[in-house]
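Because discrete structure vocabularies remain unfamiliar, we first show an illustrative case, written as a sequence plus integers encoding its fold.
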Amino acid sequence: MMLYERYGKERLENVILDSERFVPIPKADNREAWGALLPESKQMWVTLAEQYADYEWPAIRTSDYMEYWRTGEIGRHSNAIFERRSVLGIMVIAECFKDEGRFLDQIINGIFVICEETSWVTPSHRLHWKVNMDECLPDASDHRVELFTAETSKLLIWARYLLQSRFDGISVRIGERIVREVQDRLLKPYMERDDYWWLGFMEGVRVNNWNPWCNGAVLTGFLLLENDPAARAEGIAKAMRSLDAFIRTYPPDGCCDEGPSYWSPSGGGLYECLELLQLASQGKIDLFGETIVRDIGSYLYKVHIHDSYFAAFADCDAKADPGGDVVYRYGRSTKDNPMIQLGASRPKSGKPRIHIWFGMYGHLRDLFLEKERLASRMKAPYIQDAWLAHTQVMTAREREGSELGLYVAAKGGNNQESHNHNDIGNFLVFADGYPLLVDLGTEEYSAKTFGDRRYELWYLQSQYHNLPTVRGVLQQNGSHFRAASEQYRQSDVVSELSLDIASAYPLEAGIASWRRAIRLTRGRNASVEIIDNFSMKGTPADIFYSLMTPCTPVIAEPGIIRLEYASGKEAVIHFDAEHLDVRCETIDFMESRLKRNWGELMYRIVLFEKTPVLRGIRTLSITIAQ
């Protein structure tokens, strides 16, 4: 029993503050509050806005819209959408700081440019609804509740909330236009339909980060725009029901199986919804004492490695920026000290990126919290061990409270997880906070990413993860391709995950059993060991083992590979040279997203059996050179 059963059956209009009294963030009229913010923050936002003082709002061309159907390319069309919204958001915040009218004309230009867009639904997201699929151009009938509509609505709602008195001093039609567009494009379509997959109302359909992402916009709309008490209560109650579905289907161990870089819209998105409800009800609606809500937050420090590196699997980026403000606030709300530490350890927020989501609410909450957060500067918690039993993710480090030494993460699970890669039994190894053996992540999204040919993409395949390939057969996608018989053990000396990965491969691989153990041993001779104990059905099999690394591998001698991970620091991979030979491949065909995480080059170390084998035990060991 969570939100709806606990709170939604009451008369919410008596619990929730009306839109006039709900002031979650100081408006531009509150000059004392805005004047008390950090001067360097004011300087950053105003300087950035000045760069766009004579901004020519980019066209969203129909040819760019059609390009998705022709090539599957998303970026060109999305970049113009992101840019419009980012520039508008920057100018709104700068105007709140300056309050001189310097940016108002451009802000109004941006509002009307965005409101004039035929649809806020991008071509890639129209695909989700299977609506008008014979058409490659948008129509006003395409108004649907999805991520771009949600983010656009939130941006416009907060612009009106912050600057309404300034807008009304010019023309009441500015605020009226925002209200009308958000009602028509977000709130009405939300209330009219229960069959959006992300709502969680459809039997057998699992929701993901779309749920709090979209519901966050809906809650913002009903709380700040809707004046009819009955309609307001009805909309909030429906959002509560939907958020309950998200909480129910979240892994009970709190693990974000989409990975840490998706936590911000997932766990972080849930937090923002719960925070809005708590603020709007003056604390009467409060779920922060619930174990699952606390665990959804604590996941983040359980997979934190060092600095911006997190234990990342599937489509997740290796480097994540969950935002120190939301992490810190989440920790305060759930009274979770390690989460507070992680939030307080994150650096001051920098300039917003232009061609990505502009989270206005997050930027505003950060501005009014950063003095406290930065004043309480702390070291990240660097917890020693974590075991997320439901999702089957293990993390372990050599030293509690420090990034120094060895770190390992490993996963079991199944091959139908959110943003899935075929990666059962995959692992990562870091040394002193630097990556040694890694999960690549994904490239920029395209139509193929979400289509029937997804697993033709090379970086999703098991042969480009730290996994074996048997008889040339790769792991396959689907929920029945999964780990079995997992066992986890932990002590001050050893942390280990052991699991059978045979059923992650199809029958033609001919695997009878494949027991993989991923072990961290602490102490004087600290090491990470990967122990594969396998047997084949029928005839002996050709087998090779892939290892993905951003470090240039040097084959020093038989059974020894050296990886320089920092100036003057090396790690050593020890392998069974009696049975295995080695070759190293350079991966120089990465595109922009992988390059952002790893640089220009990656390497695949391939250890291959010298002869076909029927059964065997192979041990791979990684140590830090002394």
Remarks:
- The chain has two domains: 3-375, 385-624.
